[in-house]
Amino acid sequence: MALGTATDGYELRFDAGRICLDLLSTSHPGERLDSVEPLRAWITGSGLVPPGTPLAHADGSWLGGFRELRDCVGVLVRAVAKAQAPGPGYERRPHDLALARLNEIARPAPPAPRAVPGEDGRFVRELDRPPHCAALLAAVARDAVELLTDPVVRAAVRECEGGNCTIMYLDTSRGRRRRWCSSEICGNRERVARHRRRAALTRA
Q1: Beta partners for 123?
Q2: Which residues pair with 94 in a beta bridge?
Q3: Contact 135, 43 (CB under 8 A)
Q4: Which pLDDT score, from 0 to 100, does residue 191 have?
């Protein structure tokens, strides 16, 4: 599990297995992208841009774009997880607007990476120009498009079985037996609750 501390006590999680799913987790347990600073932290922590990439030009207008994309991804990924992928008559399904918007957001060209010598002489990655909001959104949207259209990856999408947890993740465990978004968080809570139930039965 990877965590990155953001503002106002929330922690940003980067353990869902895909950037688009990590974006989904920013709405649980509450809104984590409530200001520009957490968004900048998420953009860097998710690996969307190389470490050290200047993001001072990111402003409040970026928040709406990332939240909108998050909503579109959430509608589509949850439909896939429930085996409600579009089929015949798709245009009449309620998530057609989400798919159309996702494809539209994915159109701009994401920032191009390039290799440059680092301080120690080894090559490091940087972007060829300052990243703009539309380009970063496109990179996340394309990750979602790849997830939705790859049958192997799509079949591994799961929703956490933890109580009151709605986080989606990619199950790459052996035998596809992963039940929780995080064994340390929701898995541990379930184990503690199970222990308490057994203890209560013993006392009874």
Answers
A1: 117
A2: none
A3: no
A4: 62
Residue 141, helix vs strand vs coil = helix
Tell me the pTM. 0.84
Burial-class residue 144 by CB neighbours within 10 Å (0-12, 13-18, 19+).
buried
Question: pLDDT, tens digit, for every residue of 135-189?
Answer: 999 999 999 999 999 999 999 999 998 878 889 999 998 888 888 888 777 866 6
For residue 11, the surrounding DSSP H or E stretch is: strand 11-13
User: Where are the strands (E) in 21-177, listed by range?
Assistant: 113-117, 123-127, 157-159, 168-170
- Domains recognised in the chain with CATH numbers: 3-178 (1.10.3300.10)
Task: Round the CA-based radius of gyration of the chain to a whole number and report it.
Answer: 19
Rounded distance between C-alpha atoms, residue 66 and residue 23, angstroms: 8
Q: Which helix (H) or strand (E) holds 142?
A: helix 133-149
Unique residue bearing structure tokens 């090559």: 123
Which residue in this structure is represented by tokens 């440059």?
116
Reduce the DSSP state of residue 137 to 3 states and report it: helix
Q: For residue 97, give both structure tokens.
A: 């607007």
